[in-house]
User: Fold these one by one.
Assistant:
Number 1:
Amino acid sequence: MTRKITFKLSIILLLSLVLAGCGGQGSFENETNPEVLARSCIGCHGTDLSGRSAPSLLELDGKYNEQEIAEIILNGLGRMPQMKNFSEEQASLLADWLLEKQQ
């Protein structure tokens, strides 16, 4: 009985950690460095932004402009959660930075 409870608690903890990594809702108050802001992306989009459990962020050029990317960051889209901890200015900085990284 104890092994079953331990196993179930381990699964719950693991799922919590995975879900917490996607959407990274840490504090970015007053942050203006887009590379720091991008840390919230790596949980789902990978450390190099080429995709992981979410699509690549290196192929956005032509699909979205800076304003559309900023809106997606702020409001979410599909499986992507809204980034409640980002200001409009931060979302715009990150969107511009992402467009600069396009291949």
Number 2:
Amino acid sequence: MESEERSAKKRKLDDGLEEVELAAPVGDRAMDDNASNDSATKKQKLSHTPEASGDADGDLNPDLGDQIDALEGSSQSNEQFEVGVNEQEPTDQPGDTENAAAPKLSKNQLKKLRRHEKWESGREDRKVKRREKIKAKKERRREAFKNPDVPNPKVPPAIRSGKRGLDGVQVPITVIFDCDFEDLMFDNEMKSLGLQITRSYSDNRKAPYRTHLAVSSFGGKMKERFDGTLEKQYTSWTGCRFFSEDFVTVAEKAKEWMKEPGGGKIAGALKQDIDSVKPEEEGEIVYLSAESDNTLERLKPNSTYIIGGLVDKNRYKGICYKRAMDRGVKTAKLPIGDFLQMNSRKVLVTNHVLEIMLKWIEYGDWGKAFMEVLPKRKGGALKSDLDGSTAGGEDDDEAAAEDIQVDTTTTGGEQNVEAPGTSQALAQGKDAATDSTAA
């Protein structure tokens, strides 16, 4: 009987162990907490049963306690493993993705970016300073008008509101800037070309003899810059037209506006030897290029001259010449080699070419026009001046040779060459020494 009761109790304990094992944790942290609580409850219940506390045999209690302790240890190990895995998992931060996607800038790019931001931030301040400067000039001019007897060379010319009038004489000549080279230039070169065209308009506007100006192939980045950075100031330029067509089409249009009543009159150097200009030579279209074999001897009335709007640092040599030849347009070069001795290439920037042409219309002398316009860094010098200085130098050498005195009364048969006045100075020195000795 006792053996049957012991067998029943053993089966009951085994069933309790199976329930504890089924409630053991697998991977979930919440299940671990519940399982540990259940195992503790089971252990407490089993410890209060008479068989577990005071059974006569006592052979089941140690095994049951060891199994429960093993189950609790496995629960704690699973918790530690999950905590370690969570600590090792990388946390996604939004800043890391942005930093990885953002491109890295070099020091020079950062400096340029800061300078551009600084320039843009000071735009309004510069406008205010310009207004104050103009106001100060007007005040100084009013003071000068009040005291006309007091000379004031620093008084600026009158500043009128609105569009200023053009004081120069309009002549029937058109200069076209061919700007169809955008694909060959960098952004800074495009910026330089825009400044050169702006300077050309300013020079033509203030010249005593003005030409018609036109810009062909106007579009792309050039137009974006003129519309944005320059705030569409070109739309109010007087005597300058902008076209999206190429230079050949614009040159044909130039013939029409030069025939209009306001097309200009023949004046300045255009009057010189006007009879020598053949009728068929008037109204010609010439593309100016340094590679051309033809030399431009003079400007002719009702003619159109094309200047290549290209800033390339001499990367594309002869491209303007090839462009003109492909379109069947006559080419010519300025007579720089006939008048100047140059230390560099005979390639000029856009505004210098126009300014030289304006100076020729004013003076009728290419040499004088070159010397007034070309910068000193070009090292240009008039050939006439060089020839004169060479001849003058030879005459001076001959005169100096005649003044040299040769003394052949030296010992050893050598000749002493004395400059003029040397013997007289020595004689005066001897006399002075004699006087001092006598004293």
Number 3:
Amino acid sequence: MNIQSRQSMNKKESSDLMAKGILLANSGGKHSVALGSLVTRPLCKYKKALEIFRNHCATDYHKMAVLKNTHFKSSYENPEKAVNVLIETEKLKMIKSKRERLIPIVKTIILNGRENIPSIGHRDDGN
């Protein structure tokens, strides 16, 4: 929502959106950081809007929210790069490589069985 459309809203529209939690967060902050303008109350004084925006962008909770949003968008847009998908992919690669290692061993055991060749050795007397 841009500044002009926000300015053109009347108080009822703004409070309706706030009640739905669309514009502002009801609570937040970390380690009892007081939430300020643009978080707990709407922007109504447009005279100092740029200064308020700069101050808001400098807060830790805004930076953390932007970082979380960036990570969410990247995992949503590129699901193949999500951590759980990467772990599953690596697990599947490991399973495939281990199966490929077992193929020659199993083929050798099958060949030894067909040719009646003992797998233990020629001096197997049971002891």
